[in-house]
Specification:
The complex is a heterodimer of chains A (123) and B (375). In chain A, strand 1 and strand 2 form a beta hairpin. Chain A has 123 residues and is of the alpha+beta class. Chain A has 4 helices and 9 strands. With 375 residues, chain B is α+β, with helices and mostly antiparallel strands. Among the domains of chain B are: 143 residues, Gyrase A, domain 2; 75 residues, Aminomethyltransferase beta-barrel domains (Elongation Factor Tu (Ef-tu), domain 3). In chain B, the strands form 4 sheets. Chain B has a 6-stranded mixed β-sheet with strand order 10-11-12-9-3-13. In chain B, a hairpin with a 5-residue loop joins strand 5 and strand 6. The radius of gyration of chain B is 21 Å and the shape is globular. The relative contact order of chain B is 0.14. Classes of the chains: A alpha+beta (123), B alpha+beta (375).
């Protein structure tokens, strides 16, 4: 199972045709204390680069973009009652949604861990 | 804004050493948060004591031959009753334009310093201070002068443990009533200590000379009950307390009556007028304003931010949110904004258009968190 990263600071972990998606640890550090997460409805079609979720810190609201195209098959209900889980476990328990991938080729356009770390260091 | 043009307060080095995240604010490079983060800083201020650098704010003196003369000059510029201020007393007021819109809000203190009886001490917003000072100077009579504060710093110590923390060095601060000041020595540092603030908590705003600022900052932070607090928590604290942020909740288009600041216009001034902008203010006092600043409580957990459209049940726009976010002490979203006066009554059901969808909300009384002032 490989983990890929987007320039918008989402991560994607792929198992079969299901992608688990969240925001990176770097993203949660930049946001600060997360106080609200708005997740898409199960069944929603998301397009690569399009709006998929919203994450809000005390200071501001930020869009979470879909790093791949597909259909939302599950969302992390834990985040509704405990949005701070995004801060505690951004790249683990703080995942946002699972998407059934419709175009696996899109994964090739994402960065691997080394490339993402280099990208963050360049910001 | 050109980053090279940003100014720094005398405490900049302290913020950097504490690991603060520094951001441009009102032309200054200011700490928005320290490493613990906004939520922790907010809660710390509500339960213990928070120390804020507010040295970017404008400090100045209106200097007259006696209080009556200085007060009369000031009363041309603000709707508050300045003549009746007692020595040591502080009042909140606003500079108004001729149309009754708010140019800035400020604190005005009557000096009791020997030899400075005709002096008023003014504290205004950093973003507006240059314009404020020019505005004051344009309207002063010959025998009253504006003197800008030179080499002066300002820090705020706020929270239920602020009194104990400051009294450790200056026991006399225990006896300062809310909205009054005393001149005290804090471990040898000459300080002008006002019992006031911008958090809804008890606390002090401490004016000192630049040369003493770092030592005072470090002295107060040596107390484990005191932690540094950035502008992020300052904003969530004042929003929960229902206090206006200039440029957001009040500006040149809003009047003090619309802004629900009528409490800051004392009876004599309401009867007599005689200040710039009085035509509109007195008219709105007599016959009401078209819109009013109100507290807005979104239902659910989603915050509604500044600029959010407020509608009635039928979807017609009746107002706009001017400050909105998450209230850590209120433990949920909180907001304030302007609505048509017919909808301003607490309990009125409204809708907020968040991400193109209507979200239910209610008009509520301010503040969201009860004030904890020492009266």
């Amino acid at each position: 199972m490989s983990v890929k990263f987007s320039k918008d600071h989402e991560w994607v972990s792929v198992a079969g045709d299901i992608a688990t998606i969240g925001i990176t640890n770097h993203a949660q550090e930049q946001l600060g204390d997360v106080v609200f997460v708005e997740l898409p409805a199960v069944g929603k079609k998301v397009a690569k680069g399009g709006d998929a979720a919203v994450v809000e810190s005390v200071k501001a609201a930020s869009e979470v973009y879909a790093p791949v195209t597909g259909e939302v098959v599950e969302v992390n209900k834990e985040l509704e009652g405990d949005p701070a889980l995004v801060n505690r476990g951004a790249e683990g328990d703080g995942w946002f949604m699972k998407v059934k991938i419709s175009n696996p080729a899109e994964l090739n356009e994402l960065m691997d861990k080394a490339a993402y770390d280099k990208f963050v260091a360049s910001l | 804004m050109n980053e090279t043009a940003l100014k720094r307060t005398i405490l900049y080095g302290e913020h950097a050493a504490l690991g603060a995240k520094l951001v441009p604010f009102a032309g200054y490079e200011m700490p928005v948060q320290y490493p613990t983060g906004i939520l922790t800083e907010h809660n710390w201020t509500r339960t213990s004591a928070g120390l804020f650098d507010v040295s970017h704010m404008g400090q100045a003196f209106l200097v007259g031959p006696d209080h009556a003369t200085a007060a009369a000059a000031m009363e041309k510029l603000v709707p508050a009753d300045i003549a009746s201020l007692k020595p040591h007393q502080i009042r909140y007021s606003q500079f108004l334009n001729p149309e009754g819109g708010i140019l800035d809000d400020l604190m005005i203190t009557r000096s009791a310093y020997a030899g400075y009886e005709g002096w008023l001490y003014l504290v205004c917003n950093a973003s507006r201070k240059d314009d404020d000072f020019a505005h004051i100077e344009r309207h002063l009579p010959a025998h009253v002068k504006l003197q800008r504060g030179a080499d002066m710093a300002l820090v705020a110590l706020q929270g239920p443990k602020a009194e104990a923390a400051l009294a450790e060095f200056a026991p006399a601060v225990r006896d300062i009533p809310f909205m009054h000041y005393a001149a005290v020595s804090i471990d040898g540092i000459e300080a002008h200590v006002s019992r006031s603030g911008y958090t809804g908590e008890d606390g002090f705003e401490i004016s000192i000379f630049d040369k003493d600022a770092v030592r005072l900052w470090q002295l107060l932070l040596a107390n484990p009950d005191v932690k540094p607090i950035g502008l992020g928590a300052r904003d969530s604290l004042r929003l929960e307390a229902g206090l206006c942020l200039y440029g957001h909740d009040i500006d040149e288009s809003t009047s003090p009556v619309e802004g629900d600041l009528l409490w800051s216009i004392q009876k004599r001034r309401r009867n007599e007028g005689g200040f710039i902008g009085a035509d509109r203010v007195l008219k709105e006092i007599a016959s009401g304003a078209k819109r009013k600043r109100v507290g807005i409580k979104p239902e659910g957990r989603a915050p509604a931010r500044e600029g959010t459209v407020v509608t009635d049940a039928g979807g017609r726009q009746i107002g706009t949110i001017t400050s909105g976010g998450f209230g850590p002490t209120a433990n949920g979203p909180v907001a304030m904004g302007y609505v048509e006066t017919a909808f301003a009554k607490p309990g009125t059901a409204i809708q907020l258009i968040v991400r193109d969808r209507p979200m239910p909300a209610q008009i509520v009384n301010l503040p969201f968190v009860p004030h904890n002032y020492k009266r």
